[in-house]
Design goal:
25% of the residues lie in helices and 21% in strands. The protein is α+β, with helices and mostly antiparallel strands. The strands form 6 sheets. The protein has a 5-stranded mixed sheet with strand order 1-8-9-7-5, covered by helices on one side. A 5-stranded mixed sheet has the order 12-14-19-16-17, with no helix packed on it. A 4-stranded antiparallel sheet has the order 13-20-15-18, with no helix packed on it. The chain is globular and about 70 Å long. Residues 45-186 form the Peptidase M4 domain.
């Protein structure tokens, strides 16, 4: 999947909670969607999808005079009429009861799929990561070009070809999330789309597709493949996470890398690491993706190398309170020497007299902080919003193993000159609890 790099793009980020109950792609257990919009989607490989029933709701707002628009909180869909024009702005509108008819190249309904999957992808970021992926509403331009076996992000909007001999129209859930992933990268780390940083750029988009497949309820869950649902060959995918080499050109280790290798193929180094985090290290997929997303938003730079990028993912897991050793183990076979990543430098510091708010703690999330005890009396509190129990361990190591003091919601400890201390928070709660941490 192609990405057209746009430089010097300055976009502000926005985090916003969606409250519009009219716009929903949730699967309703019974009855017709409300508001109702008819539509079809799918292709011969995935099967036909009927929107407006069976709980598959197109995210339209209230119809006007029986007509619906393909515009939601997150996206708007434009029909490009198989031209290469990039200036079209007219949003698709259609008779709500009849649906929009645009069967093409074997697919039963291209625009409806794009609309549904695009909205699902926007919801993923707000509902799982409290993050608005883009501060603007991008166009999803369908029917781009003629016999066009590709999709791309141009720095502002997403474009989807109808495929040709190799692909059905390129509007599968993972491909749409892949292109939006390029939007996230272009407004955050701005990874240059060449060399090692380009491989990380492309991998982040591939990984985004897996999170979206899981969130969107793909039958069978995410498949750890790129583009399987739109490849006309019944057994082929565009790229593979478990064994990147299965496409006969991608790589999975740094030793296979060479200057000039296409970024789509060098992406295998990070793709297989993500697979190992989830499938071998048993990390929750949303948590694993959260580490990559955090790295993209806060840690990667435009020229990050594979090693620096991997260390940043490990740091991101640490910052988020996840088991960073799972990320390190997942990257170990890649040959990036991640065992030399300086773990102690990953810690977030809390100073005496200061407070950290909205620290997330649960059974799978145990954040660790370095304590700056200068001027401290040796008392640390952790108060959950719902007043649930939070365990605090004061340790002398960043992995939280050598415990010197422990308590529930509050702990006192000895302050010694020259001794670096860390605080590890944990909870029996299955879901994340928001905790306020104060050091005195």
């Amino acid at each position: 999947l192609e990405f057209n790099q746009v430089t010097n793009l300055t976009i502000s980020r926005e985090v916003r909670q969606v409250t519009d109950e009219c716009e929903t792609t949730s699967r309703r257990p019974e009855g017709q969607c409300s508001p109702y919009a008819n539509g079809v989607g799918g292709n011969p490989k995935t099967g036909r999808r009927q929107y407006g029933s069976d709980g598959l709701c197109l995210p339209v707002s209230e119809p006007e005079n029986g007509r619906c628009k393909m515009e939601s909180t997150y996206v708007k869909v434009v029909d490009n009429g198989n031209t290469n024009d990039r200036s079209r702005q007219r949003i698709i509108d259609f008779n709500c009861n009849e649906g929009f008819s645009d069967a093409k190249n074997g697919a039963y309904g291209v625009a409806s799929d794009a609309f549904y999957y695009g909205h699902i992808t926007g919801r993923l970021y707000e509902e799982k990561y409290n993050y608005r992926a883009l501060s603007w509403k991008p166009r999803m331009v369908v029917h781009y070009g003629s016999c066009y076996d590709n999709a791309f992000w141009d720095g502002r909007d997403m474009y989807f070809g109808d495929g040709c001999n190799t692909f059905y129209p390129l509007v599968s859930q993972d491909v749409i999330a892949h292109e939006l992933g390029h939007g996230i990268t272009s407004t955050n780390s701005r990874l240059v789309y060449s060399s090692e940083s380009g491989g990380i750029n492309e991998a982040f988009s591939d990984i985004s597709g897996e999170a979206a497949e899981l969130f969107g309820g793909r039958p069978g869950g995410n498949d750890f493949n790129v583009g399987f649902d739109l490849f006309k060959n019944p057994s082929r995918s565009l790229r593979y996470f478990r064994r990147p080499e299965d496409d006969n050109i991608s790589i999975s280790t740094y030793g296979q890398y060479r200057d000039g290798l296409n970024v789509h193929y060098s992406s295998g180094i990070f793709n297989i690491a993500f697979y190992r985090m989830v499938a071998e290290q048993n990390m929750d997929l949303y948590q694993a993706y959260g580490c990559f997303l955090h790295a993209n938003r806060n840690l990667w730079t435009s020229r990050s190398t594979f090693k620096a990028g991997a260390c940043a993912v490990i740091k991101a897991c640490f910052d988020l309170g996840y088991d960073h050793n799972k990320a390190r183990e997942a990257f170990m076979p890649s040959g990036l020497e991640v065992e030399t990543c300086n773990v102690q430098s990953l810690s977030v510091q809390i100073s005496a007299g200061t407070t950290q708010e909205r620290v997330m703690v649960s059974t799978g999330r145990s954040p660790i902080f370095e304590l700056d005890v200068t001027g401290a009396t040796g008392r640390l509190t952790a108060e959950a919003e719902d007043f649930s129990m939070v365990t605090i361990d004061i340790t002398t190591d960043v992995d939280g193993q050598n415990v010197v003091a422990s308590g529930e919601n509050e702990v006192t400890f000895s302050v010694q000159s020259g001794v670096t201390l860390f605080a590890k928070l944990s909870s029996d709660a299955e879901t994340d609890k928001s905790v306020t941490v104060t050091l005195n």
